[in-house]
Amino acid sequence: MSDGTPILELEDVHYRWPGRASFGLSVPSFCLKSGETVLLLGESGSGKSTLLSLICGTVIADSGKVSVSGTDITLLAAGQRDRFRAEQIGLIFQQFNLLAYASMLDNILLPLRFAPERRSRVKAPQDEARKLCQDLGLTNDVINARAGTLSVGQQQRVAAARALIGQPPLIIADEPTSALDAATQITFLELLFAQSRVHGTTLLMVSHDARLADQFDRVVQMSDIAKTEREVA
Amino acid sequence: MILRLAFGSLLARALTVGMTILAIALSVALFLGVEKVRTGAKASFADTISGTDLIVGARSGSVQLLLYSVFRIGNATNNLTWESYQDIAARPEVDWIVPISLGDSHRQFRVMGTTNAFFDRYKYRSGQSLEVSDGVVMSDLFDTVIGADVATTLGYKIGDPIVVAHGLASFTEHEDQPFRVSGILEKTGTPVDRTVIVSLKAIEAIHVDWKSGAKTPGNSTPADVIREMDLQPKAVTAALVGVKGRLQVFGLQRLINEYKEEPLLAVLPGVALQELWQIVGVAETALIGVSGMVVITALIGMMATIFSSLNERRREMAIFRAMGARPRVILGLLILEACLMAAIGAALGLVLLYMGLTIAQPLVDSAFGLWLPIDAPTLHELWVLVSVIAAGAIVSLVPAYRAYRLSLADGMMVKV
Q: Is the pTM of this model over 0.90?
């Protein structure tokens, strides 16, 4: 599915947590091509979350280049980075993805509120949200239910719909299946793959679970692309 | 959508948010209620007398003279002799003069002796005259006209007998000379409602058998004999005076105040009221201050609620951040929530105020003779409500800024 254009490029990135000089992360080179599905495997503490924060621009590298869709986000101002994230990246977390008090529909439409370009790609947002829900196997009667009343499996599908709406070029999923049981895991992943293929989206999934590996175009070990620095205190 | 989300978030924490809103509502109701009572009392006082140019009585304080002659609060220190009264009445500046004689009571109500001119001359609420709702004004010596509250409280009808007690809160009664209710006045919202009005001569008549404040022993004089007697009073408590021209008021006032025969005092009702406000003003300010502090306390309570909710809401803020919301949006969201709480609280406070007024109106009226009008909110009250919402926004800046800092530090990764 990949057409070879890089969607995500990290070059010579160095980052050190403020106030915690003993812990740092460096990524010499990491690249994701458009339309690829990539599984990033790593143990806990290997710097996966930090890497995701760097890619999403909520933390900024001390040096090096982090470019998403050809834009080096380290050069953007804070406000621009937030808008850029909303436009370019769909995010799915491990769990507690949703605003529990908001309706499922509002949760799905939330990123469009902060991403005008992404919003302009969706002609009828509510219909689009309903269609995504259907594609992800959610029945229409739950669409107005409060997210807090849904099961974890349903919540993760809503989170997937939220990441997919408006077709952002990159979807990042941070262990989205770890809170699901084995059967639900497989269904969820199949749906996620199918949808990202339909929309031609690049998918970067982070996990510690190597059993999922055969479903992805490519598997990358965290230890191969990144180096964590821990000084002995 | 953001507004809907803010509402949803508040609804999700309905209990704590509800408590906070209730505290704000109660404080706002208290504040507005104090204002209502204050302006109501002021208006009620100011409405009690109009059309009278001067009040004349024995020399004391102008506020005291006003209070006992018009509001039936407190007592006269001394009387105005009938000679002085006649002297003043004969002045060319004087258009009309109405004597007032106080000192006796009937149950909890004061008895006032006066002439029938009182019903023409006494005006309240910018020139309104007293009207008899039932019966007629006094025509016989032992006739009495009673105020609306006297009639409703004691259940009197036309023709009912009334025995006047000597002095105030006394056990000695003028039982030998009972009165008959000849008329009942319409409700005025003034102390007249709580007054038993008899003729000046009747006040003399019931004291025929009395000397130096005590009943003389022996047989009482029969009513028929009293009717034949000369019932010219020796003194009156005070007099209401109207002058012919506005400009003559001050001249006559000076003349009375410098009266050689007896120490007298003449006051302009409006000026005396102003003096009264100055005295009451301190208490008023204190009352407003205290109720204002209650509002501030409620708002600080809201600040505490928002603060304590921040930690459990870091996840929620992280979701907003991950979806591309700037930390500013988080700041705005929290201020919006505070404004919503303050606005709902203020609106609810207004509702509570009107509910309270509806319940309290008859009670306050019968207890204090104070009529609190139930009107649409004034511009001033709307300003109070807007200020409460604005103050809520300002107060919420503190926790909102903390949330802003937190969400900057947390980004989208909160391990909760």
A: no
Say whether A114 and B324 touch across the interface (CB within 8 A): yes
The span from the CA of A29 to the CA of B407, in Å, is 29
A86 occurs within a structural domain: yes
pLDDT band of residue A233 (cuts 50, 70, 90) is very low
| Domain membership flag for residue A1 | no
Q: Do A93 and B4 touch (CB under 8 A)?
A: no
Helix axes B14-48, B269-310, angle to 10 degrees: 180
Is B416 in Cβ contact with A106 (below 8 Å)? no
Q: Which residues of A touch B321 (CB under 8 A)?
A: 58, 82
Chain B nearest-CA distance from A59, in A, is 7
Picking from A58, A87, A113, the nearest residue to B412 by CB comes out as A58
> pLDDT of B256-307, one tens digit each?
999 999 999 999 999 999 998 888 888 889 999 999 999 999 999 999 999 9
Sheet of A89-92: strands edge to edge? A89-92, A170-174, A202-207, A37-41, A218-221
CATH code of the domain covering residue A222: 3.40.50.300
Averaged confidence pLDDT in chain B: 88
Structural domain containing residue A98? 6-230
A148 touches chain B (CB under 8 A): yes
Judged by a CB distance cut-off of 8 A, whether residue A115 touches chain B is yes
Task: Name the residue among B4, B324, B413 with its Cβ closest to that of A86.
Answer: B324
Convert the pLDDT of each residue in B320-360 to its tens digit: 888 888 888 889 999 999 999 999 999 999 999 999 999 98
| Helix locations, chain A, DSSP H | 48-56, 78-88, 104-114, 116-121, 125-135, 152-164, 182-198, 222-225
| Interface ipTM | 0.87
Is B318 exposed, middle or buried, given 0-12, 13-18 or 19+ CB atoms closer than 10 A? buried
Q: What is the largest CA-CA distance in chain B?
A: 104
Partner-chain contact A78 B326, CB within 8 Å: yes
How far, in Å, CA of A179 to CA of A159, rounded?
13
Query: Can you tell me the distance from the alpha carbon of A93 to that of A98, in angstroms, rounded to the nearest whole number?
Result: 9
Would you say how long chain A is, in residues?
233
Chain A residues near residue B320 by CB distance under 8 angstroms: 110
What b/e string do you get for B69-93 counting C-beta neighbours within 10 Å, with b at 16 or more? bbebeeebeebbbeebbebbeebeb
CA distance A162 to B324: 12
Using a CB-CB distance cutoff of 8 angstroms, which residues of chain B are in contact with residue A83? 324, 326
3-state secondary structure of B113: strand
Of A103, A110, A146, the CB nearest to B323: A110
Distance from CA of A48 to the nearest CA of B (A): 11
Mean of the pLDDT values across residues B18-33?
94
Tell me which chain B residues have a C-beta less than 8 angstroms from the C-beta of A99: 5, 8-9, 316, 319
For residues B370 and A232, give the distance between their C-alpha atoms in angstroms, rounded to a whole number.
81
In a domain, A74, yes or no: yes
The answer to whether B323 contacts A113, with C-beta atoms less than 8 Å apart, is: yes
Domain count along chain A = 1
Give me the residue from A82, A99, A106 closest to B324, CB to CB. Answer: A82
